[in-house]
Design goal:
Length: 401
Amino acid sequence: MKILVINCGSSSLKFQLLDILRVEEDENLLVKGLIERIGQEKSSADCTTSDGRSFSFEEKVPDHKSAIEAVFALLSRSGTLRDKAEIAGIGHRMVHGGEYFRESALIDDEVENAIEKCSELAPLHNPHNLNGYRAARELLPDVPQVAVFDTAFHATLPEKAFLYAIPYEAYREDKVRRFGFHGTSHRYVSERLAHIRGQAGRPSRVITCHLGNGCSMAAVADGKSVETSMGFTPVEGLVMGTRPGDVDPGAVLYLLNRNGSDAAKVDRLLNHQSGLLGISGSSNDMRDLLRKRGEGDHRAGLAVDMFCYRVRKYIGAYAAVLGGADALVFTGGIGENAAEVRREICRGLEFLGIGVDAEKNGGCRGREADISAEGSPCRVWVIPTNEELLIARDTVRCIGR
């Protein structure tokens, strides 16, 4: 069963074609690719097959419908798709499902309307996600399409965790609450860990750390998210590439009232000028900062220290929420590849049963591995995330239902 997975942004479209033989067993990635600079004079499109062959072209791709047509052209050139009729379903990444969706959903008019309503909560993402769906529906009207939401995994947060201590009317009337994001990644790695350890369906206490340019953590009890670091928006929580994470709301008000700052300027500051970039003054790339720290750059070192400190603080908080932890999982670009960062995060957490084996940790880059010190009660794992695979699996499940 061939499933096309689409992640549609404002001017880009990521895609994968997978052959799902049996859900959770014999998935086969056929090809993955990217369409960039949609709507500009010269767009680019490229893909790579599972056996390493690459195909690309540059020409104008004016809109998302044209982008999906370009996807089909690449799939045809690569030999992974002979006819569009081979596609059994299309899975779409949707960032925000609000309180409408607790799980993935087969898209119909009612679901489409609900996603549209959530665009107010995610104006930079949901409209573009919907553009991808509508373009695909126009080209393949008879193929079932499924929405997989970043927020859905965190729909199990209890009320005491998702509410803010502001007047209740702000939640009841305006839906100001913690939604959480990166849910597809947190769900994938927590489910993958249970599968690796042969503990699916058993009681478990897992802390998942998705560390990339965007960063978030989740406390997962028995497979369900009960706490997460991102909130009403993806700004809250950990130090990120260009976002500050936790910051006093009073400081935001102060900035708004100072020197004639307006909301747009403060929004740029919080989303594009803060985090690792803002502290270091030079880069939001952890690789650059580790190198610069080694060269004696104080601010680069400070940015790394703040990043690791915030993650370590959240690990302690989530261990308290869960009543201890059986496993700690690192994923995302930094989590999967930066052994030095993993080591610094875990330093001093032996009292929680967390210990890292230096050799195992140092030798692990971008692959699954248990990097725990011998005898550590809380096992530390590196598990590369695979959100597209989870989207494809959910698409198969929804089609089956």
